[in-house]
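ok so dumb question maybe but i'm new to this and my supervisor (M.) told me to 'just get the structure for Dehydrogenase/reductase SDR family member on chr omosome X like protein' and walked off. so i did the thing. is this what she meant?? sequence i used:
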Amino acid sequence: MKWTEQQIPRQDGRVAVVTGANTGLGFETARRLAERGASVVLAVRDTEKGKLAAARINGDVSVRELDLTSLESVRAAAAGLRATHPRIDLLINNAGVMYTPKQTTRDGFEMQFGTNHLGHFALTGLLLDLLLPVPGSRVVTVSSVGHRIRAAIHFDDLQWERSYGRVAAYGQSKLANLMFTYELQRRLAAHGTTAAVAAHPGISNTELARNAPAVVRGPLTVLAPVITQPATAGALPTLRAATDPSVLGGQYYGPDGPGESRGYPRLVTSSPESYDVSVQQRLWAVSEDLTGVRFPVGRAAVAA
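this is what came out, is it supposed to look like this??
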């Protein structure tokens, strides 16, 4: 059976925080959650754009400033959310950048790794104790099919200071999203209330690819009608990961079409590299050191 937006359960009484929710996948995710009754926080870098987006959504929607390229902003956003929301049911780590020219965040991290992974790692750690007491709460992190493309965690040059390839750097950041999810789920398992789940939108027609190099952008433009899908469809794997009662922690959802490029959301498998527990744990330790954020869940034992 194909999973569609009609299968999203009622979300009355639930609080959802969606990063990057003023446009594209994040907007469609936030819109549908609000329409199903959730109280949704649009966590966005540009609050004026966030307010315009909120005005287009029917439901209980608020806007919170969040710039994932600044750990100071991440901490301020988390503090603001803690002051206004005693609990969070859904944290959806959706925002991201893709194929950016070489540049750094305000804290000196490579832009894609710093935004897509470290910003969300820090935000999740600062908010997790608001989810832990809530039965059925979830952290959903959006990865990409790009986690398979030239992707590895380059511990010897995480910030791409020696050489930079925008496609490989994006792949590293999206691989990091998955490794973070899997390690977080192991740590959450003992608590039994909160689940960590990952999703990817296939190849969706959004603004995210605006920085793609010409060698990628050209074929995408030509093949777009065949291989891409609109943001309304691209948001479905995230929505299923966030709301389907049958979803389990540590799972990964994406489209069911050829190459997972488009289609209806289903359970999918990530790359073999993403399941390397030793790399997941090393990445976690490095991420804690880089962000200064410690999670309220300890390291889980790994079966031999």
